[in-house]
Design a protein that fits this description.
By secondary structure, the chain is an alpha/beta fold. It has ten helices and 16 strands. Strand 2, helix 2 and strand 3 form a beta-alpha-beta unit. Helix 3 crosses helix 6 and helix 6 packs across helix 7. The model has no long low-confidence stretch (mean pLDDT about 95).
């Protein structure tokens, strides 16, 4: 088992507008399966529950924008109010980013905190707060395999077996097996065009890049120091108590380079392994994905006449007539109408 978990809970979720807004981002949305007692957890709650399962005793570090600490903490408190998770509140630390700088600084902030509290040899999982993963038992098995590879000083990522030639995800080219079910990473590939995505599927050795990781905090810090030393140098100057104070982080953070962890570390290291995932994985980054996860594609009270294939999620009564394959979303006093399959355009 890993000794800690970092959850990245940043981002504004612009492609899930109008349900996701700057003050209420997508990680707070209740998307995904309905629990055995009729409950539906938010995306960040689902990430915390995965962290509890994969890290039974260690700290859970949530890195998020300073404006989102309060609402996310309320979601954590909701979980902690349940008897089976009563110890949760004392395990969660919030690190409030004063501004978004992409994933490398966010992970570095969490790693800096864990180096101070647990030491360099501690293993940590890095999860994100916008995934739906099933079943959790398979995720735990894969997390244990990833942790074993991390103990061997690999930087480990999780790769998802593609189910379609998806152009909206990055890919990992997997190489030889190295033990514990892990494989060496030959290369990371950017989001491809349709023909290249199909070639990846036909090849059979390419996996979707999930954006989840496992490593010892010292190994990650050393690699980041080698390739992006301005990030580690800046964060090293801060005392531990400053890492949970957005005002004290501000003067350091504003000068950090905005860069993803793939560019900063993973693509540059020669010690990167991938665990081909045995679980189902959904990156809830668009209404197309949200619709695929919906238990009921049409909201209660909505009316369809001579219409089919629509996804309707609305706070108000909606009627659609003679139309097919649309997303109709009415949330927060705003309306989105979008052709299914084109929801990546919502960001624009």
């Amino acid at each position: 088992m890993a000794e800690a978990t970092i959850i990245m809970a940043g981002g504004s979720g612009t492609r899930l507008w109008p349900a996701s807004l700057p003050a209420y981002p997508k990680q707070l949305l209740r998307i995904g399966p309905i629990g055995p007692h009729g409950e539906r957890h938010s995306l960040v709650q689902q990430a915390v529950l995965r962290a509890i399962s994969a890290t039974p005793d260690g700290p859970i570090v949530i890195v998020t924008h300073r404006d989102h600490v309060a609402p996310i903490s309320e979601h954590v408190k909701e979980l902690a109010s349940q008897s089976e998770h009563s110890s949760l509140a004392g395990r969660v630390a919030f690190l409030p980013e004063p501004m978004g700088k992409n994933t490398a600084p966010a992970i570095a902030l969490g790693v800096r905190y864990l180096r101070e509290t647990l030491g360099d040899r501690a293993t940590t999982l890095v999860l994100t707060a916008d995934h739906v993963i099933n079943p959790v038992a398979s995720f735990i098995d894969d997390a244990e395999r990833a942790t074993a590879a991390a103990h061997d000083d690999y930087l480990v990522t999780f790769g998802i077996q593609p189910t379609r030639p998806e152009t909206g995800f990055g890919y990992i080219h997997a190489g030889d097996q190295i033990g514990s079910g892990a494989r060496m990473v030959r290369a990371f590939k950017e989001k491809p065009d349709a023909a290249t995505a199909q070639a990846y599927i036909d090849d059979g050795s390419y996996l979707w890049n999930s954006g989840m990781f496992a490593f010892t905090v010292g190994r990650f810090w050393d690699e980041l120091s080698r390739h992006e030393s301005e990030i580690t140098d800046a964060l090293s100057r801060l005392p531990l108590d400053s890492l949970q104070d957005a005002d004290r982080l501000q003067p350091i953070y504003q000068d950090l380079r905005k860069i993803s962890v793939d560019y900063a570390v993973m693509e540059r290291s020669d010690s990167v392994a991938v665990i081909p995932a045995s679980f189902e994985w959904f990156d809830v980054g668009s209404w197309d994905e949200a619709a695929n996860l919906a238990a009921e594609p049409v909201a209660p009270g909505a009316v369809e006449i001579d219409s089919d294939g629509n996804f309707i999620d609305s706070d108000l009564p909606v009627a659609v007539c003679g139309v097919s394959d649309l997303h109709v979303v009415v949330k927060n006093g705003k309306v989105l109408i979008c052709r299914r399959g084109s929801s990546q355009l919502v960001k624009a």
